[in-house]
Amino acid sequence: MSTHPLNTALAAAGRGLPVLPLRRGKIPFGNCPTCAENACGGRPNMKTPGPCACPAPCHAWAAATTDPHTIGSPAWRRRWREAAAVAYHPGGAGLTVLDLDHADAVAWARATLPATRTVATTRGEHWIYRGAMRSVNNVRDGVDLKSTMAYARWLDPGTGTMTALPDVVRALAVKEPAPARPGPLAVTLTAQGGACRHRTPVFLERGIAMAEQRISEARSAVHTAVYRTFLAVLSTHGRCGCLTDTHVNRLFAAAQTKGESARHCTEAWTNARTALGM
Predict the structure, then answer these.
(1) CB neighbours of residue 190 within 10 Å
(2) Closest to 128 in 3D by CA, of 106, 147, 107
(3) Sign for the pseudo-dihedral over CA of 269, 274, 275, 278
(4) Are strands 27-28 and 19-23 parallel, antiparallel or unpaired?
(5) CA-CA distance, 118 to 124, in Å (whole number)?
(6) What is the spatial distance between Cα 260 and Cα 105, in angstroms, rounded to a whole number?
(7) What is the pTM for the complete model shown?
(8) 185 partner at 20 to 30 Å CA-CA among 123, 127, 193, 268?
(9) What is the pLDDT of residues 192-205, one digit of tens each?
(10) CA nearest neighbour of 144 among 153, 135, 155
């Protein structure tokens, strides 16, 4: 960034864009002691606000502001000195950013979508439309929609005339149904000397309950925690046929409560089965 992040932020705020500072890795700061190191229970890396008890929202898109007094306050100045970039909340400015992450995504947009203001990024382009909508990631390969409850990196004002948000872009938020979740394993083994002990209701229920608790208590690296929990459940119960749809649905529900998507749950489950040779 050629100018100091604070100056860049003030200039962007002057254009009506609610801004916030980003650390390395394009991750927001926790702007108060309660939220430092994600202590308030926000999502991993504080990309979205958690159940914060602060007097006002203090991190991620919820902290974005156009108020120059807040942006230049002593508390924020400390963050700007450490900041690696400036971000803004598109939805807060009534905008939608189509984040095109590589050349193929840019080529698709040029061939498919109405022209609008564009900003060059490190790997692709941001296409900015006038109008807000819900934010959705991975609407197609290399394409994210960033608007309400999301933030985008501020690089420069861009070039071209901004176009009203078209229906073809809004339609991208309507995702195709998630791939079918893998069902319980059909493999059935019998323990020596009698029926499989995993079918004992108490043993199985305790295992599933412990897995749900492990997922719900994850405070960081949720993706990894979910995968490792699925791996542990499958390694213990996966080869005897005792897992039912009800058990698997409970594990998926626990993961989704922590913010995992159905697709991520399916991938974690499939990867765990593959790792165990199932």
Answers:
(1) 11
(2) 147
(3) positive
(4) antiparallel
(5) 10
(6) 25
(7) 0.59
(8) 193
(9) 334 455 555 677 77
(10) 135
